[in-house]
Amino acid sequence: MGTFYTGCKIENHINKNKSARVSKLLVDTGSEYTWIPKTTLEKISVKIEKKDLTFVMANGQHITRNVGFAIIRIDSNFTIDEVVFAEKGDLLLLGARTLEGLNLAVDSRKKKLVAAGPLPVA
């Protein structure tokens, strides 16, 4: 399938005037969470809501990271989601939950994000 990257805009969910661009996130449907640099989240005053959550990395290593809430925008699509405060050396990822919230899907042939189609009616 191959890998590809995308950029996004991150906003503080309480004060949308506090925002930052993240130019390169690995699109990773195998990751539940979106990982944003800790320094970026701190710069826009995203508050830690969950402290020291344990994550199992692809190599089996267990690490702990903090999590907060942020608005993620890609083009005209946006969602609010939990984001991981990524530390130096962590991969920056756009995870499956955020993709679902954005109503975007992966076109692995073209290596880009596409509209996922109509949202289901509850």
The structure class reads mainly beta
Q: How many structural units, i.e. domains?
A: 1
Could you give the distance between the termini? 32 Å
Give the DSSP E fraction (strand runs of 2 or more residues).
over 45%
The helix content, as a percent range, equals 10-25%
Largest beta-sheet characterization: 7 strands, mixed
Number of helical runs?
2
CATH superfamily: Acid Proteases
Q: H/E element string?
A: EEEHEEEEHEE
Protein architecture, described:
- The radius of gyration is 14 Å and the shape is globular.
- Strand 1 (5-12) and strand 2 (19-27) form a beta hairpin.
- The longest helix has 7 residues, at 96-102.
- It has 2 helices and 9 strands; from the N terminus they run E-E-E-H-E-E-E-E-H-E-E.
- The protein is mostly beta strands and 122 residues long.
- The chain has a single domain, classed as Cathepsin D, subunit A, domain 1 (Beta Barrel), CATH 2.40.70.
Furnish the topology, listing elements before pairings.
Blueprint: E1 5-12, E2 19-27, E3 34-37, H1 38-43, E4 48-56, E5 62-74, E6 77-86, E7 93-94, H2 96-102, E8 104-107, E9 112-115
Parallel strand pairs: 2-7, 3-6
Antiparallel strand pairs: 1-2, 1-5, 4-5, 5-6, 8-9
